[in-house]
Design brief:
Length: about 425
Amino acid sequence: MDGKIDWESADWVFGVVTAGVLAALAVVAAGRFDLVVFGAPLLGALAGAWWSSRPDRTVRVSAELSAERVFEGDSIILRVQLTAPPGTELLDAELRTGAELGAVPLGVRHLTPEVLRGEWELHALRWGRAVVRMRVTTRGAAGLLVGGAQCAVTEVAIFPNADRISAVPRPMDLPDLLGVHLGRRKGEGVEFAGLREYQPGDPLRAVNWPVSARRGQLYVTERLAEQAAKVVTMIDASGDVRQTGGSTLELSVHGALAVVQAALRREDRAGVVALGGVVRWLAPDLGRRHFYRVVEALLDVQPGSGSAPSNADGFPRTVLPRGAAIVVFSPLLDERVISAVVDLRRRGFGLVVVDVLRAEPQPRPGADYDPIAIRMWRLGRRGIRYRLAELGIPVGTWSEGAELDEVLRPMSLRPLMGSRR
C-alpha cells in the first residue's frame, strides 16, 4: 500500500522570504539599489531550490505480520518498511491503531535517509477488523519542504474467543442426517425402540434370537436412528449497550460463537444470523472450515438500527431450515427484533432467548420522576418476557459472573417443540 505526501513549505522559509522582501523594499525606499545585489543571490537560490527540487509524493509501504489468524488476547509482530521518494528524508513514523489493537514499539531505525524500518508488537484487545495506519513525517527540497502522509499499513482480523460449552438446545424434529442425537424415527442406532416380526430383506444381525426362540418365529430388534440437528444462532445487532462485563453486542457475538462451536463439535450443522444495520447470515453447515467461515462473518457484525426485520420473510429458506433450533442473543430492547422472534415462533421454529442486558437506567440526581420511569421500564421488560413465555419461548438471563453453560443448560434438557400456530 502506498501513501501520498502533502508537501508544504517549511516554517523557516516563510520567515526568510518575508525578511528578504522587506529588506528589498527598504533598499528601494532608501534609494540604495546597489545593496540589492547582496540579497538577490539568496532569494534566487531559494527560488531555484524550490522549483528544481520538487520531490515525488508517493511513499511505498510494505508490511509483514507474524501470524495470519489472531484471537483476542494474542500478540503478533508487525514489521513495516517505508520507502520515500529519492531526495526525500524520512523524519518520523508513528503507528496508529484502533481500539481493537494495542501497539508496543520494538525498534525503529533508518537504513538510509529514504528508507525506514520498524517493528511493533500488536496485542489483540477486541474482536473485529482493525485497520493499522501510519503517520509519516518527511522533508525534501533541501529542507525547504516538509510533508506528512497517512499510510494504510495493513488490516488485522481479530477473531473472538469462544467459551467451551456443552449445553446446546436442539429441536424435537431432526432432519435425516447422521449424527449423535436419538431421533424419533427408527433406523441404524444403538438405542432400543421395539420388536417386530421378521420381514424379507431384514439383515440377520437385527434378528433377536432369544425372543425368536421363545415365540417360535423370527423377530427383529428395532432401534432409534442417530440423527444430526440444525442449530442457528441469531444476534441482535440493532444496538450496542455498554455495560460491565462486556457490551450487549460483545456478549452476543461471544455467545453465538460458543454455541456454533459446541454444535459443530457434536457434528451438528450450525449457522448464524445477525439482525441490525446490515442483515447478515450464513446457512447451517458442519466442519472446521465452516467454523472459520462463521468467525469471518461475525467480524462484519456492526451495531445499527436501520434494517432489523420484523418477520422472517427476508431470509432464504436455507438459512432458517424447517425444524432448526434457534438460539437468540438479544438485550430485548428493539421491538422489531422481538416481533421477528415472535414471527419465527409462529412459523413453527423452536426458539430460546438469552437476555444479554445487564445494565439498568440510573436515576439522575434530583430528578423526581426518574425512579418512576425506571420502574415502568422494568415492568415493560417483564411484559416482554411474559409475552415470549406465553408463546413457549424460554428466556434465560446471562447475568454478570454467570457462565453461558449455566444459562443454556435448563433450556437444553428437553428438545425444543415447534409451534404450528
